[in-house]
From TrEMBL:
It comes from Plantactinospora endophytica. The keyword Disulfide bond does not apply. Residues 8-401 form the Ketosynthase family 3 (KS3) domain. Belongs to the thiolase-like superfamily. Beta-ketoacyl-ACP synthases family. PROSITE patterns: KS3_1 (PS00606), KS3_2 (PS52004). It comes from the Bacteria. Keywords: Transferase. InterPro entries: Beta-ketoacyl_synthase, Ketoacyl_synth_AS, Ketoacyl_synth_C, Ketoacyl_synth_N, PKS_Beta-ketoAc_synthase_dom, Thiolase-like. This is 3-oxoacyl-[acyl-carrier-protein] synthase 2.
Amino acid sequence: MDRDRTGRPAVAVSGVGAVSAAGLGADALWTAVTERRVLTGPVTRFDMSRYPARCGAEVPAGAVADLDAMVPGHESLAARFLAAGALEALRHAGIPEQGRGRLLGVFVGTVMATRPVLDRGIGSGRLDVPGRTWADPDALLATLREVVTVTGPTVLFAPGCAAGNSAVAAGARAVAAGEVDVAVCGGVSELSLEILAMFTSLRALAVDTVRPFDVNRRGTIPGEGAGVLVLERVDRLVARGGRPLARILACAAAADAHNPTQPHPDGNGLVSTIHGCLDRARLTSDDVDWVCAHGTGTQASDGIEARAVAKALAGRRRPVVSSIKGQFGHAEGAAAALEAIVAVRALADGLVPGNVTLVEPDPACGGIDLVEPAGRRAPLGVVLSQAFGFGGGVSTVLLGRGDRATG
């Protein structure tokens, strides 16, 4: 049996699927990253004329229409995004979406779940919209269950914007423990007028572009989509003729409980999860080749994150850091899962994505090596992907190359 450095069964990513502002598919996501496209712009799905900041990172209307040929209809776009991502990921992994013979569990992270359904109902004067559409697993997972035979546990997580990483961590634990043969893990979000209103009230929205770690950053821009990763034990995957796309080396979570909307000033939760991942994987800070940062473009969060990464990964070299939120905005419940997919592709392709909208690095974000907008070609062996959530929650996933020796 292929085991990791702690003696536990090694867990692989065997397939990925995505719906994002780049359109349908993980290839579309990665192509947008490599082409350095900025996909935020004026929201078209609902009226933003009364708001000072009017931008979002919407799944294109054409891609939404294309869902009709892929998954059944549902009043929740989030439910359809998730089902489409799961289908792609399972097919990419070479696992039939229908049929039994394997124990398949589903682990999904979200922030708003199907809340936009309720918002639309209220906005149209319908006061009889069921309150359960806020975060009912059956509503969010209904379409996925129509297209995938789920024979194992189904778990919904809502730890803020750390949701996708929390789902991956739970799925990896279940696979390693033998509780499931296949874990379908991911995060999902549908753009919501109420989310935009909330961030407006917090004065956290950029009016034009998200600029992570830039001295002129002015806030974030909400996005949407779904990211799905299929996890299996490495020995099971290889036995059926498959090949690991990447390996889950370790996962860790923490909650600093400092403030409802801001991390602890010292980044204690993030430092804890980075150390936890390295300890569990029996690696050092110098083994980490790239940090796929949370990097929201907000004044407080980026500086705290940079200082925490510099502290946690102090070693022979400055940590190499970039965020893709300058391109895709902040996809909330889907963000960490989409970023994990980008990490998987970066490991395979040897490309460190750049901070595409970075013009002038903020001195307050010092101590780290911020990747230039063009990105870098470099051999990657280990990537750290991290995410923050409101309330102080942090979830971090450490990924390694698929051909990496873990024993």
